[in-house]
Amino acid sequence: MHVDVVMDLNGKTERTTEFSWDTGELPLPRRGDRIAFGELITVVDEVMYKVTEHQFPDVELRLRLSKQTRKGAYSLAEIRSVLSPLLGVIDPYVPRD
Q1: What's the CA gap between 87 and 44, in Å, rounded?
Q2: Is a pLDDT exceeding 70 seen at residue 3?
Q3: What is the reported pTM?
Q4: What is the largest CA-CA distance in the chain?
């Protein structure tokens, strides 16, 4: 399954990264679940289903970096370098510094 992901990078939704994620056979995460993208630990804030004309609904996950990950003070370039090589992450957009 492909889901759209919006990840809050600083806890204030001023900076986000967006990408598609191929979850493969994994079940859809629920609110409060933790997901690791490489060394970036995230928490699911919201799961939104979008009504479309396709056979399957589109799903958007709204994630935030966990408190421990935010303490790591990753730069945007570091976040980009962690997400880019991951196989299930498709077209990551990380804003420039």
Answers
A1: 20
A2: yes
A3: 0.83
A4: 42
